[in-house]
Amino acid sequence: LLLLLPGLLLAQPQFAFEGEVLDLSLERISADHDTLLWTVSGRFFLSNLHSASLSRLIWFPVPASDSAGVAEDVLVSLIEPADSMEVELLYQNPRGFGFRLDLPARSFAELKIGYRQRISGSEARYVLLTANAWGRPLPSSEIYLALGQGLKLTDLPYPEPVVDLGALASNYRWTFLNFVPDKDFVLRFQRQR
User: How far apart are CA 84 and CA 86, in angstroms?
Assistant: First the structure.
């Protein structure tokens, strides 16, 4: 029986991850301050295609380090929830946060998730590799990045973005279909005076 337990746990019905739209920005907190603010705001589309309601704990990693602070101002909410849909932030620690999501049978939900991090180094990171844990390619992923004035990318996180280099901000956009990330979204940059 103990040998069957891992298989039974993995065989439980799960949500399907249908897509995401990420809005990421990196900017100076103030002109005379060297610490930057990394803001992550995303809309995540999930479905429950099963004939019964589901309630699952979802872990959302946010890497913190000596140069990247812990997630602040964490927000997890449902956009236009239907009856018996619920989301609740349960805990947060230096590696991320966890929340519970309840969806009725045969339903589709849009979640808004956001947080901020203070960055003192030359790298900001958003974890994409966990998308692979859903067991299939992500049907749609759009990533928007706004890089504030006085910041310059030294390495593209992913190739071939659509780019708009403005006087006050540089804007980048990546669009992926049937996306299987092979790396996290790692933003390497330098400060310009």
Answer: 6
Q: Band the pLDDT of 99: cuts 50, 70, 90.
A: very high
Cα–Cα dist 144/172, whole Å: 6
Query: In whole angstroms, what is the distance from residue 185 CA to residue 168 CA?
Result: 23
Share of the chain above pLDDT 70, in %: 92
Report the DSSP pairing between strands 72-79 and 16-28: unpaired
Q: Give the SS3 label for residue 148.
A: strand
Give residue 85's pLDDT: 95
Residue 86, token pair as written in the block = 């619920």
Question: CA-CA distances (angstroms) from residue 41 to 74, 152, 157, 180?
Answer: 10, 21, 18, 21
Residue by residue, DSSP assigns 25-92 as: EEEESSTT---EEEEEEEEEEEEE-SSS-EEEEEEEE----SSB---EEEEEEEES--TT-EEEEEEE
Task: For the sheet with 86-93, list strands across it.
Answer: 54-61, 96-103, 86-93
